[in-house]
Amino acid sequence: MSGGIDSSVTAVLLAEQGWEVIGLSLHMFKEGSRCCSIEDVNRARRVCDFLGVRHYVMNVVDDFRETIVKPFTNEYATGRTPNPCVFCNRDFKFGAMMRRAMQLDCSHVATGHYVRVEQRPDGFHLMRGKDSAKDQSYFLHRLSQDQLSRTIFPLGEMTKPEVRAYAAAKEIPIEGANETADLCFITAAGPAPLIEQYHPDAARDGDILDVSGKKLGTHHGLHHFTVGQREGLRVATGTPMYVKSLDPKINTVIVGKRADVMARSCGLSELFWTTPSPPASGAHIAARIRYRSPAAPAMIRSLDSARWILDFDEPQFAVAPGQAAVLYDGDEVLGGGWIENI
Q1: N or C: less crowded end of the chain, CB within 10 Å?
Q2: φ/ψ (deg, to 5) at 86
Q3: Over its length of 342 residues, how does the chain's per-residue pLDDT go in tens digits?
Q4: Where are the beta strands (DSSP E) in the chain?
Q5: What confidence score (pLDDT) does residue 176 get?
Q6: 88 Cβ partners below 8 Å, 6+ apart?
Q7: Given CA atoms 194, 179, 1, 126 in this order, what sign does their dihedral have?
Q8: Considering all CA atoms of the chain, what is the largest pairwise distance in Å, rounded to the nearest integer?
Q9: Which residues are annotated as catalytic?
Q10: CB 342 within 8 A of CB 309
């Protein structure tokens, strides 16, 4: 329970359905968090009091810093675009929290994610949520069959407006709750201050070059940029320019026109299959290369056991190394891996 509307409604729904419910909250970040702070934990406790159920708090601040925050800053400082939410879900919400729930004799863990799980003869299949605007299957693509077998997603068949209406009708005490945000430990100032806290040397000047190697300007650290970025480049060319790539070896930002930032293929590392029946190499699937992107038709092919290639039917904009590419067959999540340059 994060203290937000989604997990609070989840708890109330399950209680109404006859489940014996307890609340588990993760305190993961000390200050500046947009969820999972001590204020959110206190709000979750009020909801549990409202339901008359037990509430437990797990302090995982140190583990979260070592497992999520530090690797995030390491990746960002080397010019990659990491996605810590994927690891947070796998290792904490469906890892540490699930293990604690089992110690408390729970049969399942339930969360407020907008996804669905279907059990079929061959195993458990992770599906998109009914509300396409809120679907969070992208962030859960590395959950194992064991984790999926022990998880319930009551909001998977609901839309956000339906959830809000339910919370209001039941008068759930969630005043002051914010929408759970991606990268909850990043403040309004952006990731740069946090990265500099762990990597002071990241804030060093370097060149901004166009694709031909011409110098267009100077930057103050690669950690201020991501692939596809347009704003904040501070270069004047008379044509909109976008970040094409970041080169940490020579501390250089490469920019180009939009056409220069399109890619027909990308590599995938550490591919994880969520589905119990993975497709064969050469299969035609759909791939989301970032959370807010629609799934793009593509072919997945294997180079060897550790390396895969995604060939898109149409060129894709800003395919960023380090970001997750999540693979789908219709509404089903097949799996995903980390985007790499070819």
Answers
A1: C
A2: -65, -45
A3: 988 999 999 999 999 999 999 999 998 877 655 556 677 888 999 999 999 999 999 999 999 999 999 999 999 999 999 999 999 999 999 999 999 999 999 999 999 999 999 999 999 999 999 999 999 999 999 999 999 999 999 999 999 999 999 999 999 998 866 666 567 788 878 899 999 999 999 999 999 999 999 999 999 999 999 999 999 999 989 999 999 999 999 999 999 999 999 999 999 999 999 999 999 999 999 999 999 999 999 999 999 878 899 999 999 999 999 999 999 999 999 999 999 998
A4: 23-27, 55-59, 109-110, 115-120, 123-128, 151-152, 206-210, 215-219, 242-247, 252-256, 262-273, 283-288, 296-302, 307-317, 324-329, 332-340
A5: 67
A6: 28, 64, 68
A7: negative
A8: 67
A9: 88, 184
A10: yes
pLDDT of residue 108: 97
Q: Which residues pair with 299 in a beta bridge?
A: 284, 311
| Burial of residue 17, with CB atoms counted within 10 A of its CB: 0-12 exposed, 13-18 middle, 19 or more buried | exposed
Q: What whole-number distance in Å separates Cα of residue 317 and Cα of residue 320?
A: 9
Rounded Cα distance, 274 and 144, in Å: 6
Residue corresponding to tokens 């996804």? 115
Burial (Cβ within 10 Å: 0-12, 13-18, ≥19) of residue 155: buried
**Beta partners for 266?**
310
Q: In this structure, which amino acid lies at residue 242?
A: Y
**Domain 261-340 homologous superfamily, CATH:** Translation factors (2.40.30.10)
User: What is the dotted CATH code of the domain comprising 5-170?
Assistant: 3.40.50.620
Cα dist. 208→107, 145, 153, 234, 334 in Å? 55, 45, 46, 10, 38
Per DSSP bridges, beta strands 252-256 and 206-210 are parallel
Quick one: fold of 204-256?
Answer: SH3 type barrels. (2.30.30)
Q: Could you give the CA distance from residue 80 to residue 222 in angstroms, rounded to a whole number? A: 9
Helix (H, G, I), strand (E, B) or coil at 336: strand
Helices 38-51 and 5-16: crossing angle, nearest 10°? 20
